[in-house]
Amino acid sequence: MDIANQSVLIPGGTSGIGLACARAFAAAGATVRIVGRNAERGTAAAELGPNAGFLQADCADPAQVERMTAEAAASMGRIDTLICSLGGTCLPELLHLQSLDDIRNSLTQDLAPVLYAGRAVLPVMMAQNAGVILNVASDAGKIATPGESVIGAGMAAIIQFTRGLAIEGKRNGIRANTLTPSLVEGTPLTGRLTAEGTFSARIFAKARPMAGLGATHPEDLAALAIFLASPAATKITGQAISINGGISAA
């Protein structure tokens, strides 16, 4: 199905990579629903045009994810593409300096919502016999980096979850892929990484010069999402694709 005829659900679509994806799909003519916890940030839907809307939900709550999915399917008639771009809550830090609560928060706030959303949308796409699921993770799930032991474990889990989903879903025409950026300029998370965490600020200060092809921006990820959701990518599934400007060959 071409992008203009798609119905797209984007948890985490009120800012950063998610919002860039929402803008790109709306500009291409798709019907879009962005999802966020904060109703005030839902005003971002207004800039996307008449075919866009906002659903308030905390994707760390399974009941709210089920409700969000039902509302999206009812309002749009179907869900052709799910893009999970929920960001991160924990900053990089050496493992022995992290509390057990930090670890729990990383798993419940960053990993679990992606799994919940994929599972909730799956029956809708199975009934359609078609669908695309795109999960935004990180190169931390591919490359071991100091300070990202827990973050990397969660990102690797998202990558492997998406691969398993791809193998299970292909019999119903469902494709699933992971977008794995490294440092993405101009996002709330990168702002936090450089402003709040001294350890993470040092890590990314070293990473920036390694992006010999130029800094990565949310629009770069949005362009990849458009391609992966389009008919041009009908044979691509189960892949974890990096856009990082050359910081690594992940």
What would your notes on this structure say?
This protein is α/β, with parallel strands linked by helices and 250 residues long. It has one domain: Rossmann fold. The chain has seven helices and seven strands, in the order E-H-E-E-H-E-H-E-H-E-H-H-H-E. Strand 4, helix 3 and strand 5 form a beta-alpha-beta unit. Helix 1 packs across helix 7. It is globular. The model has no long low-confidence stretch (mean pLDDT 92).
Write a brief structural summary.
With about 250 residues, the chain is of the alpha/beta class.
Architecture blueprint of SSEs:
Blueprint: E1 7-11, H1 16-27, E2 31-36, E3 52-56, H2 62-76, E4 81-84, H3 100-128, E5 131-136, H4 149-169, E6 174-181, H5 188-195, H6 198-207, H7 218-229, E7 240-243
Parallel strand pairs: 1-2, 1-4, 2-3, 4-5, 5-6, 6-7
Low-pLDDT stretches: none
Q: Could you give the count of β-strands? A: 7
**SSE run:** EHEEHEHEHEHHHE
Share of residues in strands: 15-25%
What's the rounded overall pLDDT mean? Answer: 92
What would CATH call the homologous superfamily? NAD(P)-binding Rossmann-like Domain
